[in-house]
Amino acid sequence: MKFFVLSGSHRVEAQSLKVAKYLVAALPQEVPGAEIFLYSLSGNPLPLWDEASGGAPDELWDPISRELKAADALVVVTPEWNGMVTPGVKNFLMNCGADEIGHKPGLIVTVSAGRGGSYPVAELRMSGTKNNRLAWLPEHVIVQHVEANLNAPDGAPEIAREDATIRARLRYGLRLLGAYGKALATVRSSGVVDHRTFRSGM
Q: Which CATH number applies to 2-188: 2.30.40.10, 3.40.50.360, 3.90.79.10, 3.40.109.10?
């Protein structure tokens, strides 16, 4: 099973990338045989989508598109900036089409320096999937106090209770994502999906 992991912070030194790397390391342990492609927006934002251009230029988007099409499931990691998802994450989702991520499961993982992180969850569930048909899992994970967590290797004696709880929730989310990845593959192969007739969501 193949997974596409997006680290959605534009910052060069991104805590979201730390979280994404933890997920990349954990995925093969929670989903045996998992293959992972990590794409980071850290210092690497895509050009802004607009209706005239139709999105990122082909030379930038085609390699990403190939990985998205090959993936069975997605993980989107985003920090909370001013109570919002980063512009780069929304821009990334605007570039995605139903042929790339339609009817594939997505796990939302948000990152906060403090006790925040819930607003990006609500924003992603409300928007960003209308036309690309990405199917968010009912479960999500909020990594709070991120600078103090996910720094030590699993099993290290200095892991605090909050850190251990976050790790357990992340790993549960990955196992669930793997199960949804298998289940939704049958939906995509069922012949029911018709993006030609129904190109846009309502």
A: 3.40.50.360
